[in-house]
Amino acid sequence: MAPPAPPNDIILYHYPFSPYARRVIWYLQLRGIGYGQCIQPPTLPRPDLAALGVRYRRIPLLAIGRDVYCDTRLILRKLEQRFPDGALGARNGDQKAIERLLEKFTVDAGVFNSASALIPPELLVMKDSRFQKDREELSGRSWNAEDVKKGRPEALVNVREGFELLETTLLADGRDWVLKTDKPTLADIEAIWPFHWLVEMKGALPPNVISESRFPKVYAWIARFRAALQAAKAAAPKPVTLKGPEAAQHITEARFAEEPNGASVDAEDPLGLEKGDVVEVWPIDSGSRHHDRGRLVTLNANEVTVSSRCEADGRKEVHIHTPRWGFRVAKGSGDAGAKL
Ligand SMILES: N[C@@H](CCC(=O)N[C@@H](CS)C(=O)NCC(=O)O)C(=O)O
Asked: Which residue range or ranges hold the GST C-terminal domain (predicted)?
């Protein structure tokens, strides 16, 4: 029997409790864009991704055709470009700035890092030694219960500052949505996800420090967002679930979503790399030991693309895309098909 076809040629690799993956799932739901999904374990190994030749160890990843996009910052940008009709991104300059700065605030500036330090050590998953070890490999910090408890006060102070910023600036005038729109936009997604995640997580926020009575506007905004999502989810197509081998087969047999002939390497890029160079690319904040490797296809101000061989079928190549910000790219050596 033929494997199920992923709607719009999209396959999202994720696991349901990933707050980063939710950024993408919410976006797809709010837009009503159908997609396929391939559910991953919350810890390594992830043979479904290894089969594609992908070393990047974080979740989510999104494939469109034979192009695989790492990192939600790039994924959301690509979805905006690929489905411009009804895009959720801001339209004017000031609003675009707010949207981008909110992304930097939550993803880069550490709101999420502090939020993740508030996962209660009592949660079952936190007592799982395999999960602990996996996250230590990822982050380079200790995840044992005692150390997690020690880190909580400082993380709480940081997260409280995030709540306070939203309460007293963007949401202070009583608007429904961050950009004063009728419906949630990308700027709401960029701002809300770590706060929403913590509010939903039992035991993460001590009510004497962060609660509905202290931050009523933020809590009301989260409740509105939840209701908007529920309505969008009910109206959106249900995701089509694919098993790992089905997803890999689909991807390796698909066309490239981005025409390889149109790809270019910026001759003025400060790194001085050239098209076809064998390079390695990896995130510099965490999961940095996992390097993707391949021939350089695209290098511009916002994106690196390498062509990497699939482990499952060494004749097939997929294009792995990452953002520039938060990632390092450097010349590798030898054959791009070799395993790292
Ligand atoms: N900057 C990345 C961060 C992604 C990230 O850290 N995701 C978490 C899951 S929420 C993760 O990968 N955890 C480790 C893992 O699942 O292997 C993005 O925006 O996608």
From this structure: 100-254
Alpha-carbon distance of 165 to 106, in angstroms, equals 12
Nearest CA to ligand 1 atom 1: 71
Instruction: Classify domain 7-85+239-331 by CATH number.
Output: 3.40.30.110
The structure tokens listed for 296 are 């350089």
| Residue 233 CB neighbour total at 10 angstroms | 15
How confident is the model over 17-61, as pLDDT tens digits? Answer: 999 999 999 999 999 999 999 999 999 999 999 999 999 999 999
CATH architecture of 93-235: Up-down Bundle (1.20)
Dihedral sign computed on CA atoms, order 190, 188, 123, 61 = negative
Name the residue of 13, 15, 20 whose CB sits within 8 Å of the most ligand 1 atoms, as the mutation to test its pocket. 20
Does the pLDDT value for residue 5 go beyond 50?
yes
CA distances from 196 to 114, 115, 153, 184, 186 (A): 14, 10, 20, 14, 15
Measured in Å, residue 14 CA sits from the centre of ligand 1 at 10
To 5 degrees, how large is the angle CA 293–CA 332–CA 316? Answer: 30
Tokens found for residue 5:
């076809």
User: What amino acid occupies position 292?
Assistant: D
Mean pLDDT of 288-312: 95
- Order of strands across the sheet with 317-323? 240-241, 36-39, 10-14, 61-64, 67-70, 317-323, 303-309, 292-299, 278-283, 327-331
Report strand pairing: 303-309 vs 317-323: antiparallel
Q: Do domains 7-85+239-331 and 93-235 have the same CATH topology?
A: no
Instruction: Render pLDDT for 84-108 as a digit per residue (tens, 0 to 9).
Output: 999 999 999 999 999 999 999 999 8
Q: How confident is the model at residue 310 (pLDDT cuts 50, 70, 90)?
A: confident
